[in-house]
Write a structure and sequence with these properties.
Helix content is 50%, strand content 14%. It has 426 residues and is of the alpha+beta class.
Length: 426
Amino acid sequence: MWKKILINFFRLVLALTLIFSGFVKAIDPKGTQYKLQEYLAALHLEAGSAEAVVLVIAVFLAAIEFCLGIFLLFAIRRRLVSSLTLALMIVMTLVTCWVYIAHPVSDCGCFGDAIKLSPGVTLLKNIGLTICAAAVATMPKSMIRFISEMNQWIVSYYTALFIFTCSLMSLYYLPIFDFRPYKIGANIKEGMKIPEGAELPEFETTFILEKNDEQKEFTIDNYPDSTWTFVDSKTTLKKEGYVPPIHDFSISLEGVDITEDILDNPGYTFLLISPHLEHADDTNFGDINQVYEYARTNNYIFLCLTASSKGAIEHWKEYTGAEYVFASTDETTLKTIIRSNPGMLLLKNGTIIRKWAIANLPDINADTLPLHQVEIGKQPEGSTPRKILKIILWYILPLLLLTIADRAWAWTRWLKEKKRLTKQSK
C-alpha cells in the first residue's frame, strides 16, 4: 500500500512540474526559441538552423512537456506516458549536467523567464525528477486514474488544442503572462538601480592571442605586446553579487547616450522595437507610420530602437517610408523587451504603460485625442486576474466537470455491478 502511495506522490510531483514548465515555455515561444538558439550556438550549429524551424521545435517541445504532465496527472496511457516521461527526464538531466560542467548557457531555461535556477540547483532538481520518473515507470499500473479509459481521448485532444492555441496566440500577439523585467507597469530606471551597500559581481576577461601559429590566453594584467594577434576573448564570473533586473538597457543616438533623456521624459514616449529590421514583419508598416504621425501631432517622442546596420535601416526607410528617428540598442535587450519584431512600447516617466505586437498596434491617428484623455494612455488594471480566470473557464473548469461526470458515471456502474453480484449470490 505504501508503495502505491509513494508512486502516486512521485507522479503528482512530476505532473505538476511538467505542467508548469511546459506552460511557461508554451506561452513564450519566442523566448523558448531564443534559449534553443543559445544551445545551438554553444554547439556551433546556429548557422545551419533556420529561425522558423527552431521556433516550430520550441512550440512542440513545450507542448510535449505540458501534455505529458497532464497525461500523468490523469493517468492516461500509463505505461507509454511514464516511459516517455522517464526518457524526457534522462535527456534533460544529461543536458543540465553538461550545462553545470561546461557552462554553455547562463541558465538552462527549464522554467522560461518565470523562475531562474542556477545550473547546480537545476541539476539536483532534474536528478530528483528522474528518480521519480524511474519509480513511476517501474509501477505504472499503480497510478490511480482520474478519468476512465473511454474518455481519455477527450482530455488528450483538448489538452493539445489548448496548449497549441496558447502558443499561437502568444506568437500572434504577445505572451499571455509576462515574467520579464520589462512587463507593463515596470519602471525601467527603478529596475536598473543597485541597492546601497549591495555587493557587486566580479568578472575576469581572458584574451586569446596568437603568435607564430601558437595560441595563448592572457589577462589584462599580463597582456603582451603588439606582436600578438587578437583571436577571441571570454568573460567569466569570478564572484557572484547583486545584478539588477535591468542591467543592459541603453539607447544610443549617433554615438550619444540618450538613455536618461528618454527615461526621465515626463511625457509620453513611443518606442518601436526591432532587434533586426531585415527580419521584421513589414505587413503593418502603415499602422506604424500612423502612430508616428499621431505622436508628431501631439509632440510625443517616437523612436525606433534597433541593432540593425545602417544599410538595413536605410532599406526599411525606403520600403516603408519611415520618417521617424532610429537609435541603437543591444540586440539581446530588444529581444527581451518585447516578443515581437517589430513591437511597440508606450513609456511615461520611464514606466511601461502599454505593449503592442505588430499584429495589434493601437488604432489611433492624427485625429485621436491626446493620450491622457484616451484609454490607451493609461496602464491597464487587473489584467493578470482576468487572464487566469479565462484559463480556468476555458481549460481547467471543462476538465474538472468532465472528471466529475466521469467519476460519477464510474461510481454508478460500480454500484450497479455490486448490486448485480449481490443478487446472484442470493
